[in-house]
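thought: fold this chain, then report.
action: predict
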Amino acid sequence: MILNAIDSIVVQSYKKWKVTVIDNNSSDNTIETISKKYRKLINKKIFIKKFKPFVSQPANWNRSLEQISTEKYFMLLCSDDYIHKNFLEIGLKKLGDKKNLCGYCSAVFYVDQNKNIIKKRNYGFYGLEVLASFFYRNYIGIPSSSIFRADDYKKYKYPININYAGDMIFSLRPYKKKKKIIYDKTPLSYFTVHGNTHSSNDFGSWKMIVGKYKFRIYVVKKIFNCSKFSENIFLIISRYMLFAELYFFKLYRFFKCLKK
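observation:
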């Protein structure tokens, strides 16, 4: 699938792109395949960085962020993502030189491995993305459908102890810096749904529930600019939501076992 991701960059209408492949100690001949297919672009437009040992996704994102020191913009495109041929041109045009804007995020099409569209996912919620994500689902956005200004992420270290809420934590960075993300309801990026990821295998599990709880704590302490009293209220709400979600997860597993 990584070839789909790189192909979608190579055909961009915006031509001043550069791809840095972060090899997380892969063992499936990924680097050899990329080097063979794009041999004319290697070390010119496509650069490969090999790392050992294998690390978690958040830790690997930090490796990626180490590569943006000389860049003006960046995006994190995972191997199961790809983008529309006009994504970069549209995103960069909408960002422009407005200093209060940190990123651009498009809607996403979920597709199967044959690129058939399954559903559409929008981000943004009338300027209340963080609050809506605190109580419900991710409205903040995901790195693979976003372009960010590199200056806002230089020297940034992603918190690697918060799993299963990685996209939201990463995209919170602009809010911490009092900047905004442009949300485009036009789907210009694609996520390939498959069963070989932790997110797919653990979807709806207690691991994801605990990850969302840690996300809420992070939001309360790092993002919400509220009084100590309000902060404590949000923390209490977070704990009750954690207990409620874990309880319903147990009920779900119980009835699922009964059906079997």
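thought: worth noting. The longest helix spans residues 228-259.
final: tokens above.
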